[in-house]
């Protein structure tokens, strides 16, 4: 069973009088627990696809299914609720809430919607996450007191706090130096193994692509490669 | 939501301290001005009433009136025993009762002349006068039947000293011209509460000069322990007098749907109606100053206009600021939306900020106004100022009706929310992908 299925999705942006065909019809599926890299040159449509999977943008045509649920007919409110329940987000520029400290930033998603967890359970879980991302000593610091790598660790913990099935990360390492970027990817990979969370991240960096066990490569809004690695069960080659 | 939105809103306000301070300060300033006006208006009536009652030596008055055959109205109480027995019947209590007659006269002394209202009362025995009027020159011991007491200001304008003889010309109650001589017995200190406008003469002497018999006078004033007791006192006295069959002017004959006060209606009845014998009117200091209440209404109206004008300006500032804030925080908005914050929660984030700003500003404004009031009321303006009528013992005094203050805060809160509403709505409407892309 695929946790995500993308069916012939297209995305067209109006740009003045012309239209930009950012994604020209792509189909693929993602299995539970995958660690997927969406690769491709700048402008190839990586962010556009991640946004549509993340339900923060709508396809112009086609369908995105999340845990077998079609999403095209959903209202903004339902999409928001679905994002909150099944998706986690990691951003290129970290996007922490500046007025909240590390602990509060991680807690934030738990205060939304109707998540029912006991106070003690919540505290234990957040503390576990903070230890997991290695920020035990930084709980009460504000984002502007942290380095880029530390901020991205907070963001990872925040993305995981609601125990989502899928975490989306659009170029999570682009604002970090390469060794910090590798550490971040390592951390994501570790969590992927431990919690079996599906990670989908986009990147330019060839070295980071290699960590993935499933690569989807884009060019000009089309898939040019869709490959499962490390003895993964399927290996679809590209039709072009 | 577990208060996360208000919590973030509150912290967001302290993020741009200078900006919040300026906006909150503008709100505070507006509220302060308006509260000062409200506070002044709130104490106005009471101050005016209290000062009037000192000037007129009473809180409640009984006046007698007669119509002559020619239709001329005389102000006279021929026999006050019925009034006092009505008073005894009703068991009412007062501090002083003062019998007065008044006449408008021209005073002459060595080529100088001045127009004055002479108030006749029993100089020899009136306790109220002796208690309140401070003498600069002369003494109560030298009071004789033809004595006059003038204030410093009038004495100096006439250039008279105690012992000088002053001539007065005036009309008798029947309209004949008459003159009388007075001896200046004493000069009163201007700064007394009675002010510099009063001239006192002896009741018996002036009555004779204007054609009233001994024991007769124009009005009877009762000084009570408390201004607030005036209305019940007047009401019971009226009932008691009416019960004894005394002919009275209607007290509450206000005409429906007109601006005429009951007191004005009573005065008109005295002019227009015809009656036989003596007819009495009972009125209070409140009735006399009831027109001053229109000033209060005007002041409160003006304060509301000021409030609205000031806040039209503040609202533009708030509207602009929140539009700017929306762009500054576009990334946060996109992030929050991605993480599962609903549109209406984004809206309420902004509205919460606006509300905290409004309430913070308004409450500081009221506090500032209260501080300003207590400082202003420390200033001693003295009794000589023409504005002493609106003051309390020569000091400004204020009273802010609590409901009025609450009303002002609510108005500000509503206006601020209104100003922030459209930027908040725009922020909520933004698509998360657009918000996240716009921010770099
Ligand atoms: N809102 C938009 N309006 C118009 N064109 C857009 C918009 N968003 C993206 N595009 C265009 O769509 C194409 C795909 O953009 P997208 O951001 O998905 O690329 P990308 O692979 O993420 O690139 P990068 O590596 O630079 O982030 C590009 O040509 C881009 O210019
Ligand atoms: Mg991109």
From TrEMBL, chain A:
GO terms for cellular component: membrane protein complex; plasma membrane. Keywords: ATP-binding, Hydrolase, Nucleotide-binding, Transport. One of its GO terms (molecular function) is ATP binding. The keyword Nucleotide-binding applies. Pfam families: ABC_tran. Its EC number is 3.6.3.-. Residues 4-240 form the ABC transporter domain. Signal peptide: none annotated. The keyword Hydrolase applies. This is Putative ABC transporter ATP-binding protein YknY. It comes from bioreactor metagenome. The lineage of its organism: unclassified sequences, metagenomes, ecological metagenomes. The gene is yknY_18.
UniProtKB/TrEMBL annotation, chain B:
GO terms for cellular component: plasma membrane. Keywords: Cell membrane, Membrane, Transmembrane, Transmembrane helix. Its main location: membrane. GO terms for molecular function: transmembrane transporter activity. It is found in: Cell membrane. The chain crosses the membrane at residues 21-45, 301-322, 354-379, 399-422. Residues 305-432 form the ABC3 transporter permease C-terminal domain. The keyword Cytoplasm does not apply. It holds the Pfam family FtsX. InterPro entries: ABC3_permease_C, Macrolide_Exporter_MacB. It is a multi-pass membrane protein. Belongs to the ABC-4 integral membrane protein family. This is ABC3 transporter permease C-terminal domain-containing protein.
């Amino acid at each position: 069973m695929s946790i995500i299925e993308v069916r012939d999705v297209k995305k067209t942006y109006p740009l003045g009088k012309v239209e930009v065909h950012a994604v020209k019809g792509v189909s693929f599926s993602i299995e539970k627990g995958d660690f997927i890299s969406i690769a491709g040159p700048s402008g190839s449509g990586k962010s556009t696809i991640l946004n549509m999977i993340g339900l923060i943008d709508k396809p112009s045509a086609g369908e995105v299914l999340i845990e077998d649920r079609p999403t095209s007919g959903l209202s903004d409110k339902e999409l928001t609720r679905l994002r909150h329940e099944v998706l986690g987000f990691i951003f290129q520029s970290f996007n922490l809430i500046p007025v909240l400290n590390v602990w509060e930033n991680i807690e934030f998603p738990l205060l939304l919607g109707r998540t029912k967890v006991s106070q003690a359970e919540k505290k234990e879980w957040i503390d576990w996450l903070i230890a997991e991302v290695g920020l035990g000593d930084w709980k009460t610091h504000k984002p502007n007191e942290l380095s880029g790598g530390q901020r991205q660790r907070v963001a990872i913990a925040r993305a995981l706090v609601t125990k989502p099935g899928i975490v989306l990360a659009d170029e999570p390492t682009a604002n970090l130096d390469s060794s910090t970027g590798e550490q971040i990817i390592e951390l994501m990979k570790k969590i992927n193994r431990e919690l079996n969370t599906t990670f989908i991240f986009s990147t330019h960096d060839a070295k980071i692509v290699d960590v993935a066990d499933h690569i989807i490569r884009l060019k000009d809004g089309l898939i040019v490669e869709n490959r499962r690695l490390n003895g993964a069960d399927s290996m679809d080659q590209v039709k072009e | 939501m577990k208060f996360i939105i208000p919590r973030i809103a509150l912290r967001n306000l302290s993020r741009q301290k200078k900006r919040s301070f300026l906006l909150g300060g503008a709100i505070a300033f507006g509220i302060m001005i308006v509260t000062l006006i409200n506070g002044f208006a709130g104490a106005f009536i009471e101050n005016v009433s209290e000062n009037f009652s000192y000037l007129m030596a009473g809180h409640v008055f009984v006046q007698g009136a007669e119509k002559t055959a020619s239709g001329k109205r005389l102000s006279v109480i021929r026999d006050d025993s019925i009034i006092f027995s009505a008073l005894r019947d009703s068991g009412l209590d007062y501090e002083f009762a003062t019998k007065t007659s008044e006449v408008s006269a021209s005073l002459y002394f060595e080529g100088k002349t001045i127009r004055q209202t002479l108030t006749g009362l029993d100089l020899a025995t009136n306790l109220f006068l002796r208690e309140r009027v401070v003498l600069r020159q002369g003494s109560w011991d030298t009071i004789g039947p033809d004595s006059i007491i003038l204030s410093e200001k009038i004495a100096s304008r006439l250039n008279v000293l105690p012992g000088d003889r002053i001539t007065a010309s005036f009309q008798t109650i029947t309209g004949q011209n008459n003159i009388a001589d007075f001896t200046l017995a004493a000069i009163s200190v201007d700064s007394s509460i009675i002010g510099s406008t009063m001239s006192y003469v002896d009741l018996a002497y002036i009555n004779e000069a204007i054609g009233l018999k001994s024991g007769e006078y124009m009005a009877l004033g009762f000084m009570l322990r408390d201004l607030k007791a005036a209305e019940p006192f007047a009401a019971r006295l009226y009932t008691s007098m009416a019960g004894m069959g005394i002919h009275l002017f209607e007290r509450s004959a206000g005409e429906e749907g007109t601006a005429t006060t009951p007191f004005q209606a009573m005065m008109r009845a005295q002019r227009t109606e015809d009656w036989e014998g003596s007819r009495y009117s009972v009125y209070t200091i409140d009735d006399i100053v009831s027109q001053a209440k229109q000033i209060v209404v005007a002041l409160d109206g003006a304060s509301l206009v000021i409030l609205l004008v000031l806040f039209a300006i503040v609202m533009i500032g708030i509207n602009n600021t929140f539009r700017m804030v929306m762009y500054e925080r576009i990334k946060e908005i996109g992030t929050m939306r991605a993480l599962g914050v609903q549109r209406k929660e984004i809206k309420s984030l902004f509205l919460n900020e606006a509300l905290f700003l409004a309430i913070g500003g308004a409450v500081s404004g009221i506090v500032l106004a209260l501080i300003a009031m207590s400082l202003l009321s420390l200033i001693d303006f003295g009794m000589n100022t023409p504005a002493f009528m609106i003051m309390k013992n020569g000091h400004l005094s204020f009273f802010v009706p609590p409901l009025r203050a609450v009303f002002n805060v609510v108005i500000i809160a509503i206006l601020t929310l209104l100003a922030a509403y459209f930027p908040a709505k725009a922020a909520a409407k933004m698509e998360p992908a657009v918000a996240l892309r716009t921010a770099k």
